[in-house]
Amino acid sequence: MAVLHSAPKFTLIDGLKDTLSGALGDMLVEAKEEHGELLLTVQRESLEDALRLLRDEHSYQQLMEIAGADYPSRPERFEVVYMLLSLTKNSRIMVKVTASETTPVPTATTLWPNAGWLEREVFDMYGVLFAGNTDLRRILTDYGFEGHPFRKDFPLTGYHELRYSEDEKRVVYEPVELAQDLRQFDFMSPWEGADYVLPGDEKAETPPIDDPKVTEKPSDTGAGKAADDKAADKVSAGAPAEEDGGKDAPAPKATEGQPARPKRKGKTSGTAKATEVKKKAPAKKATSKKAPAKRKPATKKDPK
Fold first, then answer.
1. Cβ(42)–Cβ(96) under 8 Å?
2. 136-144, long-range: CB within 8 Å, 24+ apart, which pairs?
3. pLDDT in tens, 123-143
4. With contact defined as beta carbons under 8 Å apart, do 9 and 24 qualify?
5. Which residue among 16, 46, 72, 282 is the one 20 to 30 A from 24 at the CA level?
6. For 16-131, which CATH class?
7. Would the pTM of this model clear 0.70, i.e. be above it?
8. Domain limits of the chain?
């Protein structure tokens, strides 16, 4: 028996952009479709009203995630992205606002309680402030941590290192000391090309293929007077084959004029009869019992 669900398998994105754009009105900055998803950018001051409108009037009941992004070259370098889910429409949308290091974003804890934890994570990783969040503390880094690890200008090694001191018998924080500076960033995509030589590019320099390789002087080829003087010398001079097989070595004797061998005297051992395997007679079985002695014939006594 087929089971019917109130939520469709999927919601078509066609027409959704116009519907939500008209509902948001002046609160909307930009609406576009990317990778099959709808992305709405709203005014930072109107964020709470926009999220409430999408939740109450367009059935986007759940706040699934709050993520951050950093673009240091922009006046407002941070983007805060809210990912909403509609259970009844089986639809997802994203809502974005921009912010700087000093401009706070209105909190969403008045709409979804789970926003408190998500805003704490964005604050910890990026340093974005959320106005109205009563518990805005770090959630992933340690107490007293300096800086925000997900910022593009944050060093790869951090500012401080954590280690155990054998002298003080406790965990200590110390400033990171590096021989090479890792805090220089140009924020340029490697696919766009760089104006400077990247590490490893110096190994890619190869001679032009169109220029033929020529020998300007005889020494480049190994030729010259010294090579011509040694050209007539035998390479195999002094070898055993040269010493044993020279002109003065006697030639081997011919075999055609040799006298015939005399016939062998006596029995030959090369005949078929001589090569046959000799069969041995079967050995007699030894017996340990002695033969019984012969009885003498009985004689009749003379009755007297």
1. yes
2. 144/173
3. 999 999 999 999 999 999 887
4. no
5. 72
6. alpha beta
7. no
8. 16-131
